[in-house]
Structures are given as C-alpha cells and as structure tokens.
Amino acid sequence: MKRFARITGTGSYLPPKIITNSELEKTLDTSDEWITGRTGIKERRVVDGESTCDLALEASKRTLEMAEIRASEIDLIILATTTPDKIFPATATMLQSRIGANCPAFDLQAVCAGFIFALTTAQQYIENGVYKNVLVVGSETFSRIIDWNDRSTAILFGDGAGAVVLSSDNTAGIKYSKISSDGSYLSSLHVNNNYINEIGYVEMSGNEVYKIAVKQLANIAEEILRESNLTASEISWMVPHQANIRIITAIAKRIGLPMSKVILTLETHGNTSAASIPLALDVAVRDGRIKKGDKLLLEGIGAGFSWGGLLVEY
Length: 314
Ligand code: COA
Known about the structure:
- This protein has helices at 21-27, 32-39, 52-67, 91-99, 114-127, 151-154, 206-227, 245-255, 266-269, 276-286; strands spanning 4-13, 18-20, 43-45, 76-80, 105-108, 133-140, 160-169, 174-181, 189-191, 202-204, 237-240, 295-302, 306-313.
- By secondary structure, it is α/β, with parallel strands linked by helices.
- Strand 12 and strand 13 (306-313) form a beta hairpin.
- Helix 3 (52-67) packs across helix 4 (91-99) and helix 7 packs parallel to helix 8.
- The longest helix is centred in the C-terminal third of the chain and has 22 residues, at 206-227.
C-alpha cells in the first residue's frame, strides 16, 4: 500500500529573555519606528546560556506530547540548524540522547530554508516506507553569530525552536514539495569568517536578499498552486518563513492571498531562521486557527540561496 506523510504533532519553544526594539535603540543608531516600519519586528527572544539543543529539546517534548507518541517510537530525527552547539557531534544526536530516542539522528543545514529542506527529506523516508515517525526540528541560536553592533543585522534575528512529527499515513498530508538552491550568492548573506575556528558574524546585503527573497518565494508559491491545481482562495493558511513583513506581503499580493490568511509571528519572534516556520505553525495550531484538513502553504528561503515550499493538508 502506498504510504504518505502527515504532520501528527507540532511544538515550539522560545527562550524567556526578550530584547525589544527600544532596548536596541540604546546601543545602536536605530529606532523602533525604523525597525517596525521596515521589517514588522518589535521584539525578539535571545538565549541567556541555553543551547540550540536545549531549545530543540523543549520544542520536541511538546511535539511528541501532541502527536501522542513516546521518544522510543521515533524512527529518525532531522534537526535543521545553522547554529549547532558544536562543529561535531551533530546537535541532533545530542537531542536523541537527551529525549531518550533510539534512532538515527542528523543535522541538516540550509539556513533559513532548513526546516523546508528537513521536512522534504523526512517526507522521502516516510513515502518510501523506510520509517514511520520522523521528528523534524528547526532550532537556532542566531544571537550567538550576530554582531550586536551591526544595525543592519542585529535588528532582524531571534532565537527559538519549533518541531513537527511527520508520520506514515494512508492519506496524503504533504501533497507537493519542492526545494532549490543557487550557490552563486555567497557574499549576499553569509558568516564572514575565513576559517572554521575563526570568529565570524552574519554579514548581509539586505537589499539584494530582499529582492531575491520576493522573487523566489513568489515563484515557488505560484508553482505550488499551479502543480496542485489550486487557486489562492483554496489555501487555508500561508505559513511563510518570518524574515520581513514586506517580503511576506509582496508574496501574498502576487498570488492574490489576503493577509488575513497569513500566519505572522515575526512581530514578537523576529527571524528565527530554521525555527521560524515550525514556530509559526505551532502557534497557529495551538491557538486554533489551523484545523485538521486545512490546506497550508509553507515556504522559506535562506542564504546560499536555498529555498523551497510545500503544500500540506494538516
Ligand atoms: N536603523 C536605522 N536605519 C537603518 C538601519 C537600522 N537598523 N539599517 C539601515 N538603515 C539605513 C541605511 O543606512 C540607509 O540609510 P541611507 O538612506 O541614509 O543610506 C537606509 O536606512 C535604507 O537602508 P536599506 O538597506 O536600503 O533599507 P531597506 O529598506 O532595504 O531595509 C532591511 C533593510 C535589512 C530591513 C531589508 O533590506 C530586508 O529585510 N532585507 C531582507 C533581509 C532578510 O530577510 N534576511 C534574511 C533572509 S533569510
């Protein structure tokens, strides 16, 4: 019998420490008005000693609880992160041990598109009948690789984790998925160290990233609708990577989706990279906006560039 992949649980976790725009005004030549107007972000969470694995563990526990499975029933853990706790071992294996699972575990790095890439990878294992339950996590502590004196990046990012359990089912949850990369944009957005043991910080050409993000995310949204034979009016919710309200608004406008059908968390989360989509998904599942049977359009882009999207029936 053909197997399909379906999301059976979501969870998320944010570290308690908040940095507001007003606090950033004290150390940077910026203003709450500028940040809010240009990005939609008001505040972000940052770690205060917690690790990427700590955040992933809390989000994963909540996810397993909702999916009503025990850690021993997880067949595979994929952890999307750009900010692993160590170069090695993989943060996913630390999570495997701490949550009490007995399964293969690996990290996946596609920066802000990491969760989309991880979910698509998990889908393959399930649809091919290899595994039954895959824990897919996005967890980031970007605050550790931000130069807090650089106003062009310090205002944007935040820390957090989100996760889903993707399980084998006889009806399709994931109905379409697509990932793409174009590695010719290295200098547009990268960490600026030359060697792996040298300290480096996020460096970005905001304008360039902005234009590519709008172009590729609008293209992938249109492709998902076309390939799924759907119109925008048939989409229940778009759950986009939370980078900038203006990027999200431009995409929604291009496909004719009202902003009332877009899940937004960036005002209070900022850009949490690979964690932003599962975080937004979990918020909207738990507050009751996303319901069983809803058609979700998930999409994200990250440095590289790498981008992708999925049509998911929740
Ligand atoms: N506070 C106040 N002023 C700032 C500022 C800040 N934090 N950052 C930049 N500025 C200034 C610039 O110096 C510039 O001043 P000038 O006109 O005197 O030269 C002006 O604001 C406009 O800068 P610009 O970079 O053109 O702004 P923008 O409208 O492109 O907005 C970003 C900047 C970063 C918000 C926007 O480009 C963006 O969001 N890009 C995408 C970034 C992203 O999503 N990255 C992650 C992808 S996963």
